Structure formats: C-alpha cells, structure tokens
Amino acid sequence: MAQIISSFGQTARGQAVSSYSLENRNGTRAVLIDYGAALQSLCFKGRGGELIDLVRGFDSVEGYENQDAYIGATVGRVANRIGGSSFSLGGREYKLFANNGKNHLHGGQIGFDKYVWQSETGEDFVRFSRLSPQGEEGYPGNLQVSVTYTLTDSDELHIAYEALSDADTVVNLTNHSYFNLNGGGSVLDQQLMINAQSFLELGPGLIPTGRALSVAGTPFDFREAKPIGRDIESEHPQLRLGGGYDHNFILSGPLAAQAYSDVSGIQLQCFTDLPGMQLYTANSLGEFTGKGGKKMGPHQAFCLETQLFPDALNHYGFPSPILHAGEKLFHETVYKLSLNEV
Fold first, then answer.
1. Terminus of the chain with fewer CB atoms < 10 Å: N or C?
2. Residues 1-41: pLDDT tens digits?
3. Which of 124, 125, 141 is nearest to 133 (CA)?
4. Residues involved in catalysis
C-alpha cells in the first residue's frame, strides 16, 4: 500500500489544505482531502485497463469552497433535512439555521463540509477528526467526531464514522460523493439495484410525511437492476416533487445498492450498517467545470448517501438520531469495486 501526502492549496482564509493518496496493490487509488474530510478521487481500472475516476470533484480547494452541492464531503452534524429547522430534545426546542427554504439541510449554513479537519494517517487509512463545539449551527453538546477512510487490497473503500458528545445531541453523518462509473457524461444508462422494499414519502420542501410507501409497481422499484433513467421522466408525483430521485430508501439488509456500467465494466457495491440510503440523481446540480476540465451538470452523477432517516426527531417510529452524553457512535459504509469483463 502506497501513500502520498501533498498540498492541495489554501482556503480563502489562508488555511492550508492537504490531499492524501492511498493506492493498493491493484492500482486502485483513493484521494482524500482534509477540507470537508472529502473523497476527492476514486480511481479504478475499467474494462480497457485504463484508470477511471469514479467520483466527481475539483482539482483545487477553490472549487470545493465555491460550490454548495457537498461534493465528496463528510456531511453533518445532521445529514439531509430537518423540517422547520427545529427539533425538541430533553424537553427543550433547538432552532437551527434555515439554509434550504424554511428547512435545515446537511448541517446548516457552515456544515462539516466547510471545515479543514485534523488528520492522522497510516499505511492504508486516513482519519479526519474535528471538535464541533456546543452551539455550532444551533446543536447542543461538544461533539468530537471522526471519519476514517481505509482502502483495502480487495478494492474496498471503508468509511467509518465515530462520534462522542458531552451532552445529549443529534448526529446523522454521511458521505456525499457523486459517482459516475464512466468518469463523465450522463449516468441515466447506468444500472442500479437498491435493496429496499419501501421508501419515504416526501411532502413540500422534500420533508418526509412520516409514511413509508411500497416500491412495488412504482418508478422507485430498484429491487431488480435497471437503468437509473428508465423511469425518471415518469409523472409519478414523488418524482415530479424532487425533479428526479432525491429519496430515502428503507434498506432490507447490509447490501444497500449495486451499480454497474456496461461501458466501463465497473461494478460498485455499497454495504452499510445504517437503515437508510438517499438516492440523489443530481437533479438540481448546476453546470460547472470539474476535475480535468470535465463538465458536470444534472444527471451526470448519482449519490448513494447511507444514513439515518431525514427529519427523524420529528417523526415517531423513525430510527433515532439521538446520541446520549458519553455514548459512542460507530457506523460504517463500504464501497466495493469490481470489474465485469463480459
């Protein structure tokens, strides 16, 4: 396993940003940056033997600073949306910053994606950590949080989340990488399977109504692999609400999803111990130039955001995002790469 640490520039405030490259014996390479504890690059050999970068992103820290799509970042304290930008905990109401209409999205005005994290490295891993202080974005408790990326010789990228708070708080962490198994262009022809019998119904502002809907007979049925775009233009009201897929699927097991491109031959499997996964098809992504001068825009990537359910504290029966004082949080998601040479 080889590791290279390099400068990735400076933030607008003059903070130094570094990149950390992990490469296994197969030539698979993951590049992480401490700005946003983000996955900047994930390269794997396609059917022709060429290395293909499977995640979208930027060549410099300026690109990450000047976008609001959370590209590649670790998202928190609470990923996804909180309706009305408020929640109750321990008999007290907490008001959060409303950065998505009336709602709170992906940690607020300055979420985890906009900080330079501390780093620790080993032969096959990079661990990023930071202290989110009491009151940051309105959240209670001093939260010590870390995310560890490990690349194995089995072409698995493990992402392990850990957190500990000195007061009861809420935590829901995810990675917001934008995948494209061809390295560019539309993803609508790429195949996707999601291991879920149901998904959360959304209402105005893409806030869950509290109801779980069966995927059977709907465009949300990915139990058998199908092209991502096969049903995306359907008149189903849930699709029209989000302009495409931007929904939380209730997972039926540790294999959350499996994607495949018959162009590159690359297969991506997603495993997790979390109960939900948000499929986002980059519906509202603005057009811009990313790594290597490649253009990016709507439906040119997909996100598989493993997480707890959105707006969980405001819905009875949703898995709880409460982290009690002194209690240790640990969750792990694994992205496994392989090649179908047929």
1. C
2. 768 889 999 999 999 999 999 999 999 999 999 999 999 99
3. 141
4. 176, 305
